[in-house]
């Protein structure tokens, strides 16, 4: 009989994390640990539920899994991105700086660390404030990479937030095993850790491709939190149909799980953590993210045009 996992959810104040530049890793890293090459059979079934703690400040939210609006012609900003230098700054959004290369990747390629970091920053700024009691952290890709690759747990603890009062953490998982190569991985998946119940749920849109990496991240989180975590690989996760949509799946599943499963449930309600049967419109997701970025860029340019600083035209459109 399939086992059923129940975890508790509760919303408290979001912990916003700053972006850590990749070049500081070189001062931390030692050779990375050898990961197992074989993929193991998941121990737990994909049937999983969460239980909401009483007393949570819960609000309804109508956000869909993905905006399915029909595609619109690319506006001037998307066209401009194709003409600018790849490393040229495109948008500064709080702690994330998107480059032209990031925009090109978002349109039709593998998502970069910056793409995913932007999405997490956006959810923290635009969605989580509606749930003031949420104690949920969206860990940035750079911090997840540090968690997995830095052997000295003291260095990891000093860089990561305090998880003692956190209920859940989302971690984007990448299969890059070479700490000397930036953007060296080829696949993204999502790990959702319920710290309050000691369970780590893994959502992989490419079968079990990132099983070992996600399992490693769960073990390191267990060390950081000082409590055991059971690793649950959800083998019924929605699957991508090409080789480049994994990052988009991570972003859309993250929002759905955050808003629909962890924050919008009623107290004491059992909520399934399985994503079986869910359809993910990756193309629509890319377009939605582009629309958000372009809207923010327009607003950033409007603010920049009103700035009295003589250097305003030399900085990227900024939202902060």
TrEMBL record:
Native species: Epichloe festucae (strain Fl1)
Pfam families given in the database record: Peptidase_C48 (PF02902)
Superkingdom of origin organism: Eukaryota
InterPro entries assigned: Nep1/2-like, Papain-like_cys_pep_sf, Peptidase_C48_C
GO biological process entries: protein deneddylation; proteolysis
Sequence similarity: Belongs to the peptidase C48 family.
Protein's name according to its UniProt entry: Ubiquitin-like protease family profile domain-containing protein
UniProt-recorded Gene Ontology molecular function terms: cysteine-type peptidase activity; deNEDDylase activity
Protein keywords: Hydrolase, Protease, Thiol protease
Domain (Ubiquitin-like protease family profile): residue spans on this chain: 96-257
Chain spans, region Disordered: 296-320
Lineage summary: Eukaryota, Fungi, Dikarya, Ascomycota, Pezizomycotina
PROSITE patterns xref list: ULP_PROTEASE
Polar residues bias (residue ranges): 307-320
């Amino acid at each position: 009989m399939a086992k059923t996992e129940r975890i508790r959810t509760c919303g408290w104040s979001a912990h916003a994390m700053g972006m850590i530049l990749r070049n500081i890793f070189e001062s931390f890293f030692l050779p990375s640990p050898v990961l197992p090459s074989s993929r193991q059979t998941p121990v737990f079934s994909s049937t999983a539920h969460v239980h909401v703690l009483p007393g949570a400040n819960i609000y309804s939210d109508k956000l869909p899994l993905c905006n399915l609006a029909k595609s619109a012609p690319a506006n001037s900003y998307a066209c401009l991105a194709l003409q600018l230098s790849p490393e040229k700054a495109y948008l500064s959004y709080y702690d994330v700086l998107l480059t032209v290369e990031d925009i090109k990747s978002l349109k039709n390629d593998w998502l970069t660390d910056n793409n995913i970091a932007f999405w997490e920053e956006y959810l923290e700024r635009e969605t989580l404030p509606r749930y003031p009691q949420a104690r949920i952290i969206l860990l940035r890709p750079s911090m997840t990479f540090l968690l997995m690759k830095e052997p000295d747990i003291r260095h990891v603890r000093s860089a990561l937030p305090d998880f003692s009062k956190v209920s859940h953490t989302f971690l984007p998982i990448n299969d890059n095993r070479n700490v000397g190569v930036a953007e060296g991985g080829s696949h993204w998946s999502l790990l959702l850790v319920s710290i309050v119940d000691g369970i780590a749920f893994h959502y992989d849109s490419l079968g079990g491709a990132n099983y070992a990496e996600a399992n490693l991240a769960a073990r390191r989180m267990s060390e950081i939190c000082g409590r055991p975590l059971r690793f649950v690989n959800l083998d019924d996760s929605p699957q991508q149909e090409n080789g480049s949509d994994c990052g988009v799946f991570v972003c859309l599943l993250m929002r759905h799980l955050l808003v629909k499963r962890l924050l919008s449930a009623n107290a004491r309600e059992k909520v399934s953590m399985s994503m079986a049967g869910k359809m993910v419109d990756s193309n629509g997701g890319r377009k939605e993210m582009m629309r958000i970025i372009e809207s923010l860029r327009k607003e950033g340019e409007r603010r920049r045009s009103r700035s009295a600083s003589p250097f305003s035209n030399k900085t990227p459109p900024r939202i902060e």
